[in-house]
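Weekly puzzle thread! Below is a chain. First person to post its structure in token form gets bragging rights.
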Amino acid sequence: MAFVKYHQPCPLCSSSDAVSVNEDGSAYCFSCDKRISNYTEGTEGEVKHNIKEFKVQQTNAVNDIEGEFVALTDRGISLATAKKYNVKAVTDSNGDITKHFYPYCVASEVASYKIREAGKHFTWRGNSQGTGLFGQSTFRESGKFITIVEGECDAMAAYELLGSKWPVVSIKSGAAGAARDVKNSIEFLEKFDCVVINFDNDKQGIKAAKEVARLLTPGKAKILTLPDDFKDANDMLKAKRTQSYVDAWWSAKLYTPSGVLNISEQKEKFNNREQRESIPYPWEGLNKKLYGLRRGELVTLTGGTGLGKSSITRELEHWLINNSKDNVGIIALEEDWRRTVDGILSIEANARLYVDQEREKFSEEELGTFFDNVYSGKNKDRVWIHSHFGITDIDEIFSKLRFLIVGCSCKWIVVDHLHMLVSSMVDGDERRAIDNIMTRLRSIVEETGAGLILVSHLRRVDGNRGHENGVSVSLSHLRGSQSIAQLSDCVIALERDQQSEDPLEANTTHMRVLKSRYTGDVGMASHLLYDRETGRLSETFLDDDAEVLL
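Winning reply:
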């Protein structure tokens, strides 16, 4: 059969030149092992096709083949190499090669020949079932190095490029059958110290190389990447790029599964890594331990009931708005959005605007100025607040959270609080619900790089004293699940003795760092004194006798 086209792109596997096309429009891809009928190229480069499974034609017996040992001049391969691999060829009256005969063996005996004609048209003579790799019987069954390639001519080419020093074999049926062919010869390959995989430099070849590497003993497989966009070893031989191939072969990278890195190769990334963007906390003591708030981290703020979580959250929200240029998103599940707005404005005004009697002390103009300072001007379109108080559907809440980050470009998110999310889940298993929620929150942080501040509650402690009596908090006090501590980058606990007869002690909140993945520095950090007139928290410091210094 005459071939009018060859080296065409494959519409199935995206190979750039693996398709040969016949006069009748039928075609075959040597990369993905598929026959294509009605291969036609439209005016816009569109390829129309029907797909059929392709099985290479085989005859029943191996007869004496025609041909002789000659240099395979059409592929740039020497006579010596052709003899080494026992490959004969047929020439026409003009001396042009018309056929190659590639022997495949079982136990060193030729069982079949793969016959290559013009245009990459292949047939088989004999039974190829149970045969090994091309070239397998040519080399002794052990050694330091062996190379696997995709095609017979590539095997001979690579052998010549390597100075005929190291064995090179080929899979039988292209990238699509690579894993199957290697499995059938795995015992042979495992006897070599190192297996260099040099498949075609295309999508299918790269994929097949990784599949084959996974079949071999860990640490044995290396994957060779050809330089200068060469497709295969035969192309490099014809281009006389021997040294380039040798250099690439010796530089082949040890195959490592995804996620496993050879650190010696990561110096450039180490030196040029992106600095993690951060802003300081509003309190000096906390900064000394944590070195600020960083995007891409999940910070959990926890404390007992009535210990000032809401006040500290408002301080942080106001601080983020005024000390970063990033958009800020707030999900306050226990209150209407208006109370959230009032709470943040109260920080700006140094007054409890959420209390009607306090709010009435300011004119409408003054209140408008507070609003503009926080939510307009330089902060216009930067603050986004979830407005559906009482929402119970967990998936809807996470949808809103993702929208704040992706749709509203919020780089900082405050969620108040975790256990309102838990209450929306219906299975009744709090621990399992918290595990699920924390995993989803962690995934969003990792995916988007947003900084997330999460408010969480503490479980009730055993004994006569509770958190309202100033009990020191530990990670074990986190309510519901160890996943809160495990999946948070930082955990900050609040402590305060509300019942103290000393008004100074009763109004001082202590901030204890329970976990810091970034610094590892934990312990008491800051002491915040609550001003009942303004509703503000100001940092104080302790002397050696643990007395509050004003």
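Puzzle host: Confirmed. Bonus trivia for everyone else. The chain has three domains: 3-53, 79-258, 282-549.
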